[in-house]
Amino acid sequence: AERTYIMVKPDGVQRGLVGDIIGRFEKRGFKLIALKLVHATREHLEDHYGDLKGKPFFPGLINYMASGPVVAMVWEGLDAVKTGRSMLGATNPLASAPGTIRGDYALAVGRNICHGSDSVENAEKEIKLWFPEGIVQYSHDLAPWIFE
Ligand code: GTP
Ligand code: MG
């Protein structure tokens, strides 16, 4: 099954949105396969956002992401990458639809609460980067109620 890396950013943790965000993914039908609270180093965050090095907002992005712990998660299920992104909403909350996480809780692109992998390939990279220890295996008894 497809996997995606979803992260509650430091503002989402501080604002008490962790439970809500986890609940949305659970209720949508995704399976939680990894979860931890981590205060990431700048080096780790620079790796995670390596594609954005050189952007004018990059230093501010790293400061923001290093400002407190994040909740790192892996969710598994049908089209997890694309559906995960649609649940987060557009990058800039100005354009995020109501009903999405960013559209419900965020106003500024530099404080947009959550991260989601943008492709299956990047999801695999991000899962290795954030969970080098590997991922627990367990069966999900609800699967026949969620997948054809
Ligand atoms: P992530 O899920 O966090 O990767 O966001 P994204 O994939 O929707 O956007 P992208 O990867 O292009 O940018 C990563 C993060 O950098 C965004 O989520 C924002 O927090 C931040 N960011 C992107 N563009 C801007 C910008 O123009 N200004 C500022 N201040 N931050 C930005
Ligand atoms: Mg991105």
From TrEMBL:
The active site is at 115 (pros-phosphohistidine intermediate). Residues 1-137 form the Nucleoside diphosphate kinase-like domain. GO terms for biological process: CTP biosynthetic process; GTP biosynthetic process; UTP biosynthetic process. One of its GO terms (molecular function) is ATP binding. Gene3D superfamilies: Nucleoside diphosphate kinase-like domain. It comes from the Eukaryota. Keywords: ATP-binding, Kinase, Nucleotide-binding, Transferase. The keyword ATP-binding applies. CDD domains: NDPk_I. It is an enzyme of class 2 (transferase). Its cofactor is Mg(2+). HAMAP family: NDP_kinase. This is Nucleoside diphosphate kinase. It comes from Thelephora terrestris.
